[in-house]
Records
---
Amino acid sequence: MKHAALILAGISSLTLSACVAGPAPDIAVPAPELPATFAFAPDAATAASLDALLPANDPAFADLSAKALAGAPTLLEAAARVDAAIARARGASANRLPLVTGDASITGTRTNPSQFGAGLPAGIGIDTERVAYGANLAAVWDPDIFGRLRSQERAAANLADAAGADAASIRLALLSEIAGSVIDWRTVQAREAALSEDLVAAESLVALADIRERAGIAPGFDRVRAETAAEASRTRIAALASEKARIVGRLATLTARSAQSVRNSLASDAPSADAPAPPASTPSNLLANRPDVQAAAARLAAADADLYAAAANRFPQFSLSAVLGLLAFDLGDLFDDDAVVGSVGGSLLAPLLDFGRIEAQIDGAAAGKRAAFQAYRGQVFTALGEAEAAYGLVAAADRELETAERERASAARAAELAEVRFRAGLSNFLTVLDARRAADSSGERAAASRGRAQRARVLLWQALGGDAGTPAGQDATLSTSQ
């Protein structure tokens, strides 16, 4: 009769819990529609390397990037977050295994015999002082019949993957910032060199005007105008010092190094500045290359697993337990056969009337999955937009550089011809100054244009996912748990 009553109680619990049990709600997560190609991408036949977009041949970039990867606070913080996420995933995995505990105890008690009354039979005494010695080994295990713990484990593993992708994204941004800063430094150096050449040319005009003034064949005003042009070049050279200070400060922050260490790295000789061809790519490649897209996909998978775990709360939870121990009232009797005690049991916990608590958890998890899906879609289209913009910037910067180089060559030729004509007495000094001023401006603009062209390539490298790679064990494609 007792066994029948227990079986009947279990069947009743399962029947009642089945009234609220059911699968997780289906949340549609269609794959985002991607264009076939990038509008500003070069011809697919163009042979180019993604890594070539970085100034890898610049010793300053090689040194500073190595130092940053070894000790940048942002990377070390991201690595710590990855370790924490992995630890949580290990904890979720361990929850599926039995929990075994052990304990030992010594308990002393003293009893007042008066509490048993005065009418005890003859020959019966009460031991008023007693010491109990015990030791127990206990085990508890949830067989996870309906997959609640498995879903929690899957969610924790996906969040660990997301943390790894976040770290890769930080690494990508860090290398991009360092590359851009090094390019800015080289650009400032090129502008300074161009302005120094302009200053030399302006000072030669000052000397020529001074000679002509002393000879009485030119007014003093020509010399003053020539000196003004020279001072303008000196002013622009002096203004570059503030840009250098800003670049050094930014690199000190990125690399966690002193400003002097940064300056020592930047003191290396600059390699030849080039603007390599941008590589052709397809929008679908962003799903595998961009770590931020991978992180969003992993969080979507985690939200899906959380939804399954919430839905599993509708079903009964089983647990098995066992205790094996020793209990004796004399230390010498602790290992006798009579001291061995134990118990084995099982329990069932089923939701009967929770007044909507579980449904609220499921609705919250479903909303979390919908939000994670929209975050994934948003990240995909953010990546598409950044890649499109980067390709467009490269194309525009290349056209600007080509035009600036032609302008510089033309202005330099015009300045040479104007000076030759002036020395031959065929043009006045004002014409020479105007031509020199145009040549001075064109040289600095060409240097700045080359820097923008190189900068645009770094942005393209970052937009296409760089070399961060896919974190181990992570699937970058959109999927849902089954």
Note: The two ends are 42 Å apart (CA to CA).
---
Amino acid sequence: MVYIRAKKVKSDQYLYLVKSIWDSKKSTSKQEIIKYLGKASEVVKDDIPVDYRNDPKVLSVLALYNPKDIKKREDATKKSKQQLYKKLTEGNIQESMKIYDEYIKIFNTSDFFDKILKPTMYKIGDEWATGKISIATEHVASNVAQTLVKIIMDTVSSTGKKKKILICLPIGEEHRLGCDVMETYLSIKGFKVYNMGVSMPTESILSFIDNNKPEVVFISITLEDNLMAGQRLVKKIKEHTDIPVLIGGYALQAKKIPKFEGAIIPDCGLEELPKILRKI
């Protein structure tokens, strides 16, 4: 059974998606948190994992918390995704930035990355793969998206007091948008981020690790064709050092994923990343 649990902190309510699991040894059920959803007044349907998004019990609980505001936020999210798709594929950075500026008046930067930019870029990638848009349009959209992330990044000041994170790509992987989004968000949260941004020879990555001593390496893989290259990169890093290695990206949603010597990060929201990093 899946349901939403509320926890009050001071004057605010915070929501968690949980499920009941039967403990046969103790002959009782226990709760397991599936996902922290956030402040009750700000949670919308898109915050719920796809598998549970249309559960009547889940939706009924969401409706208890300011239903008019929730409807407004859902409409804003849907409209922003449609507008951003149009402006990215047109190559319009100025209008794309305006969409971001308007969106964060209601939400925040991590919401924009998770709920607007990420699904929009997934859609663009899927439409290129199925021939609905040309490779030229996909490149234009990707370049504008990267510029957009960099503009947002320029407004961020990092304290650099937390862990040092290296973000890199395996050989052959050319999609760097996920790296730029991670760099921006983790910098906002105070992490020191080294973002290589382009695929580099393994020896160069190992040399960088030796010289800069990052505490965690995150490898981003977007295309399924690059999973094996990612697997080899992880193996080389683990042979060279005992530094924790995390692997994530769109390619990790594939049906068949090779075994990695590092930890695979599921498709989670950006807000979950600092929690994952704190546990390492």
Note: The longest strand covers residues 12-23.
